[in-house]
Design goal:
- By secondary structure, the chain is an alpha+beta fold.
- The strands form two sheets. Strands 7-6-5-2-8-9 form a six-stranded antiparallel β-sheet. The chain has a three-stranded antiparallel β-sheet with strand order 1-4-3, with no helix packed on it.
- The chain is globular and about 50 Å long.
Length: 226
Amino acid sequence: MATSNLETPASSSLSSARFNHTPYYCEENVYLLCKKLVEDGVVRSDASDLYVLFISNEKKQIPLWHQKASHRADGVILWDYHVICVQRRKESNVPHLVWDLDSSLPFPSPLATYVAETVRPSFQLFSEYQRVFRILHGPIFLKMFASDRRHMKDSAGNWIHPPPSYDVIVAEDGTAHNLNEYMEMSSVDIVKSIGAETISTVQSEKLGVLVGETQLEEFFSHVPEN
């Protein structure tokens, strides 16, 4: 995860310190966050109420607000990609929660608040900055994700950003690296509509589905209670 310059046209909080966080390794941070939420009994033991969202686009330039790494008052930053976790709450009177260790918003934040304050879908952006979301089911992500951190080395083999001190994440099937598969996304592959088939795909397929920034809340409203 890296940053670049941005151009634009005319629940009660928990301490994020409880969770492992290595700057610029958001995918690994979320992987470990999901595991800790399970271990601490905050979510279901099978992580079935968790969804992992990779955010990027064809240009690898996505603006998000209220990010701790930003040097601007509004917290906006231009990531090449970002990863967050959404906890779907089964109770109709409580909000779904976004767990983003890089956000300056309350931790965790209600999904509607996070979308409005961090994604800001109503904010006028050039088309190359439109965000695409790859939605993955937590249990599948925890089994299938792998990263050997090759994307964090330059052409000479030097670290662009210091790596975590723990071992690399290897998928259950032995795969050593597939981060690039999760990061690759195009707006042309965004689902046309959200329905039962969309939910089924996310809950059964390794790479889930791609949705647009205006479809995010709609997706979670369609996930059945179970």
